[in-house]
Write a structure and sequence with these properties.
alpha+beta; Beta Polymerase, domain 2; 2 domains; two-stranded antiparallel sheet; 9 helices; 9 strands
């Protein structure tokens, strides 16, 4: 299937979630955000999109769902089937063309056990740094869909910091390519460039140090602008 065909499947998932009244409680993260930056934000119109089969859905804490929604059943009607990992009940949802996974921000020291999201009837994996994305979420309108995504500056900075933790080179390269691609567009706009600097300045010192260490090698313009008066 073509990339545009995959995007149509992603859109249909989001449409079903919106119809069920849960889309506004979720944040789309990962490389599929680039589609919505390109189509929903004017400054990103020429942004290249990285091909990926992974659809990552972040469920921000605290969980707030007015009713129980059978998300696995919704996905099943679209051709997704659960693939379970071990005995924990954690599942990713596989489609012939895509893989969808639910994630939550890791809290405290974290845990290997998945988090039970009863309002969605799914279990999600806790991942470090995701609270950073949920706290910088914006809503992008696209063909009647109100899709929550991390604001572009936060997306790029997050990609820089997670790239430093990747053990697989191909995933690290994809993170860096996404971060650099977005930053190159942001740095063409003075307001967006300043926004990246503001967000970076408010991060915990260890996070900021890691990001600047990575950007020094791959996007030194960020370091130069951050250190400017």
């Amino acid at each position: 299937m073509t990339e545009s065909g995959q995007f149509e499947i992603v859109l249909e998932v989001l449409k079903r979630f919106q119809a069920a009244g849960i889309l506004n409680r979720l944040v789309l993260i990962g490389s599929w955000c680039l589609y919505f930056y390109r189509h929903g934000l004017g400054l990103m119109e020429g942004l290249p999109v990285l091909r990926t089969t992974d659809v990552d859905i972040l469920v921000p804490r605290p969980f707030r769902f007015e009713k129980v929604t059978n998300v696995p059943a919704i996905l099943e009607t679209l051709g997704f089937a659960p693939t379970f990992h071990g005995m924990s009940g954690l599942a990713v949802y596989d489609h012939p063309e895509l893989r969808l996974e639910f994630l939550v921000p890791e809290i405290g020291r974290g845990s290997a056990e998945p988090v039970d999201i009863r309002g969605l009837l799914v279990k999600a994996q806790g991942i470090r740094y995701l609270n950073f994305l949920s706290s910088h979420a914006i809503t992008v309108m696209y063909h009647g869909l109100a899709v929550r995504v991390p604001e572009p500056a936060a997306f790029a900075l997050h990609k820089l910091i997670v790239s430093s933790r990747r053990t697989k080179k191909d995933k690290q390269e994809k993170d860096l390519a996404a971060a650099i691609g977005v930053l190159e567009f942001l740095f063409k706009d003075p307001k967006e460039k300043e926004r990246a600097k503001t967000i970076l300045a408010k991060l915990p010192p260890k996070w900021r140090k890691t990001i600047l260490s990575v950007s020094a090698k791959h996007f030194p313009s960020l370091n130069e602008y951050y250190e400017s008066v």
